[in-house]
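Troubleshooting: if your tokenizer reports a length mismatch, compare your output against this known-good record of 343 residues.
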Amino acid sequence: MIKVTKKLSIVTVLVLTICLLVGSVIAFAADNKVYKIRFAYGLPGTHNVAIQFANWAKMINEESNGRLEVELYPGGQLYTDKKLLSAVKTGACEMGALYTYYMGTIVPEFGIFEIPMVIEGREKILKIIDGDIGKMLFSKIEDKGLKPLGWVLWALGGEDMGIISTTPLHVPSDLKGKKVRGHGPEQNAYLQEYCGASSAFVSGAELYMALQRGTLNASIATLNHMIDRKLSEVTPYICLLPLCSYPDILVMNKQFYDKLPEDLQQVITEVSDKIQKESYDKSAYIYRIYDLKCKEAVKGRGEVYRPTPEEMALWTKDIESFWKKVTEKNPEVYDLIMEVQNL
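Known-good structure output:
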């Protein structure tokens, strides 16, 4: 009996040892599994914001020790901006950078970024993003099956946004009777009501030619557009106005994110937060650079104009009534607009 017991003990020890070894191998393999993230966006890879996306990917690869492998697809190579939201939501693509405009199609409250004169200045947009409103917006995104990771800002508070024109533009009446390209229905409504202008849809690729030929007389655009798309050649005037603000939002398919090991989720959270904070300073720097570039590009034949307080009063006359009108179908958006005004 003693010999049998000893044999059984030896067998038991061997079995346990093998199980432990197998378990260790499985755990090691699981810990070193590589998760691929296809990260798509519409901007060309050379754009200053796209460079920040590339930096996000680099940091993710490094901080995860290669366990997260990010593949970048700039310039709409994988999906166009219009199709990207659906692609990320369904898991056809693990991740994307989406404008607030597209987020507004599933979460109406994102309209605060699209409706003219709502967000004005750096301080206000940071209070939105870093405060309770930003948390609420991200919570609503998550309810839609997406995992919001962070914001990547262009110029803060719509500082670089305005209306480019073939003629001088200081007050709304300077656009009366002219054809202007807006970015969305709220902006088109504003141009018609405040400026007496007619709105026209022209794709970004056709914008230069339309302005050159007179098909359009003006367009909502940015200082970046003036330089990068060479629009200053055909529209040497820009009146800077807070007509909208278009930060990018990094979003991931929620099911994909939830299945990642916790330590990799932490890597994504920390890197995304770092990129967001860096975008605050970078966007301010880029704004100053493009402001100088535009002034130089239109020198002697145009101007980069900022309305006086008296002129600004004309651009914002009875603006609360306008906000209420364009949010009639979504009163919660109007309530949020008023909350933004009190920040």
